[in-house]
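Feature request, filed as a ticket because there's no other form

It would be nice if the structure record came with a short human-readable summary line next to the tokens. Right now we just get the raw output. Example of a typical job, pasted below so the devs can see what we mean:
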Amino acid sequence: MELVHTISELKDAVSNARKANLTIGLVPTMGALHAGHASLIHRSIGENDVTVVSVFVNPTQFNDKTDLANYPRTLEADCQLIEETESEVEASIAVTRTVVVFAPSVQEIYPEPDTRQFSYPPTDSVMEGARRPGHFNGVCQIVSRLFEMSDPDRAYFGEKDFQQIAVIRAMMHDQGFNFQLVPCPIVREESGLAMSSRNTVLTEKERETATAISQILFQSQELSKSLSVTEVQKHVVDALNDVEGLEVEYFEIVDATSLLPVNNWSDAEHIQGCITVYCGQRPVRLIDNINYR
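Raw output as currently delivered:
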């Protein structure tokens, strides 16, 4: 594993890979890595000669300064997880791979303010987009820059951020990025709680409470066989709000492509339930999603 902090160092590594006709995978992260991130890194190492893992808490996608300040920064532990994942994959495939960890400063990425504007409605204007103004514009700013700097053949994103993947797909089409975006399944704790860097700030009791989110979503999959979209939506919201310590911000059942709400199960070929729930006294904002069709 090689740790670099500057764009020039990253570009040198990418250039050397291209000269050797090696494939490149990119795993963009904001650090505080966990098993969910490890699954993305594992897959990229297995499928590419070189894997670039970015570790950067991107300020332009935060619309809450307190949230930005409190976001965990654990580079040393992150590098340890990456090295362990690299060793595990290499042992299983008996081939040596190259992993470059790109951990730049804010000044390195944004020597000047990024004033670019990205707009891809409805994917970036519903759900998270409606509640976090500027968030997806910031995501597109940093992801587009990482794409340009790393020149990947494949980029890996976790499906926990389901809406983010839809927005990035739209941005790739708009900006002419011609490589493979690889969505990777949600990794869950043994309890069913979706892995998230934010889970680290939950107390033990809050983490136990938060398991109700996935439990009720999984129950709703079965209920969708006999109940209407509206009935399933109401059941999920009511059931979670009845749990002490949880409060649903939104739960939308949407066309998995457009992200627009559906009224009937026959309205789209693929249908996704996307949810955000506040947990605990602080509170901690948790997201999850589930497929219905």
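Something like this underneath would help us a lot:
The longest strand covers residues 246-255.
The chain has a mean pLDDT of 97.
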